[in-house]
């Protein structure tokens, strides 16, 4: 699989495009959020919901990306998408943290990443430009390959960097849980193993923001099983470019995604990979 990245001029232009479309989708999602958000449909389980705004945000992103980049493919969480011929795919999550959106908890984001390779093949793709935008806090986490990661709020911006944590026992660890009861039970057993070995657990409700939280030093590490490419594409790049160690089995993906401050790179992957093999496989 050819994972050669586009040159930095193109990557910078696509990072700017990602920021522009994520901001406009994010404003749409917030401005048109009804007081009582209704569930429009359910997907994998009764608690895996989609609101009208998930679809509206994706339609908006798709239209804007097709207009700007007609030859690129688009892979999104909701219905619809597009094939392309350029070798670049936009991997988009129109609202990551849909349950938070449903309840009005201000931790949801629009995630937009440009990738090379095939996002359906574990280890067979790589993001090179992308953003995660929280429209409630107006925080834009932005990165492109080789150029670092930044947090942009209004006119100000600062480079992102992980914590200096180097002890598993001191680590504040974010995680998340899937929607299927059987998977949640297994994920709970892994948390049970982990809890006595770390400082504490956080479950914020958006994988994209969790990865950015490691990049911003707001938690020391993160792991989750069962993620889709759209949950992790932009957050993976933001974390990597901030200097976070990111991995999984065969790279970040459905089987396992982990991210940690460099000082935890020996202990943390080992403990979550062992726990995942023990509880989530078979
Ligand atoms: C979910 C969120 C959540 C994670 C789930 C994802 P959605 O995405 O990222 O934090 O634990 O695995 O499916 O459904 O809100 O787009
Ligand atoms: Ca998601």
Give the fraction of residues assigned to helices.
25-40%
* CATH architecture term of the largest domain: 2-Layer Sandwich
CATH topology group of the largest domain: Fructose-1,6-Bisphosphatase, Chain A, domain 1
Number of domains: 2
**Poorly predicted sequence stretches spanning 5 or more consecutive residues:** none
Largest sheet geometry? 8 strands, mixed
Enumerate the distinct ligands: D-MYO-inositol-1-phosphate, calcium ion
- In round numbers, the mean pLDDT is 95
Number of helices: 7
- How much strand? 25-35%
Question: CATH superfamily of the largest domain, called what?
Answer: Fructose-1,6-Bisphosphatase, subunit A, domain 1
Total strands: the figure is 15
Shape: globular
Structure, explained:
Keywords: Hydrolase, Magnesium, Metal-binding. Its cofactor is Mg(2+). It is a single chain. With 282 residues, this protein is of the alpha+beta class. The chain has two domains: 8-159, Fructose-1,6-Bisphosphatase, Chain A, domain 1 (2-Layer Sandwich), CATH 3.30.540; 168-281, D-Maltodextrin-Binding Protein, domain 2, CATH 3.40.190. Helices cover 34% and strands 26% of the residues. The strands form three sheets. Strands 4-3-5-6-7-8-9-10 form an eight-stranded mixed beta sheet, sandwiched between helices. Strands 12-11-13-15-14 form a five-stranded mixed beta sheet, sandwiched between helices. Helix 1 packs antiparallel against helix 2 and helix 4 (181-194) packs across helix 7 (267-279). The model has no long low-confidence stretch (mean pLDDT 95). Residues 77, 93, 96, 230-231 line the site of calcium ion.
């Amino acid at each position: 699989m050819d994972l050669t990245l586009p040159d930095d001029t193109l990557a910078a232009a696509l990072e700017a495009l990602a920021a522009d479309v994520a901001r406009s989708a994010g404003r749409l999602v917030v401005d048109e959020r009804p007081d009582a958000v209704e569930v429009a449909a359910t997907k994998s389980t009764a608690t895996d919901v989609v609101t009208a705004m998930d679809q509206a945000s994706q339609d908006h992103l798709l239209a804007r990306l097709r207009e700007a980049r007609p030859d690129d493919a688009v892979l999104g969480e909701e219905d619809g998408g597009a094939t392309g011929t350029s070798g670049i795919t936009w991997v988009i999550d129109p609202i990551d943290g849909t349950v938070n959106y449903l309840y009005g908890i201000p931790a949801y984001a629009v995630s937009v990443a440009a990738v090379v390779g095939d996002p359906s093949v574990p280890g067979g793709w790589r993001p090179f430009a992308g953003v995660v935008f929280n429209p409630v806090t107006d925080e834009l986490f932005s990165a492109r390959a080789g150029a670092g990661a930044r947090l942009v709020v209004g006119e100000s911006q600062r480079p992102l960097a992980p914590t200096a944590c180097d002890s598993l026992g001191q680590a504040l660890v974010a995680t998340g849980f899937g929607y299927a009861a059987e998977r949640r039970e297994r994920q709970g057993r892994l948390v049970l193993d982990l809890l006595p070995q770390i400082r504490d657990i956080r479950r914020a409700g958006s994988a994209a923001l969790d990865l950015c939280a490691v990049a911003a030093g707001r938690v020391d590490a993160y792991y989750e099983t069962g993620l889709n490419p759209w949950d992790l594409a932009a957050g993976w790049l933001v974390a990597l470019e901030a200097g976070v160690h990111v991995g999984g089995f065969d790279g970040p993906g459905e089987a396992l995604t982990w991210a940690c401050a460099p000082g935890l790179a020996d202990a943390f992957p080992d403990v979550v990979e062992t726990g995942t093999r023990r509880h989530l496989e078979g």
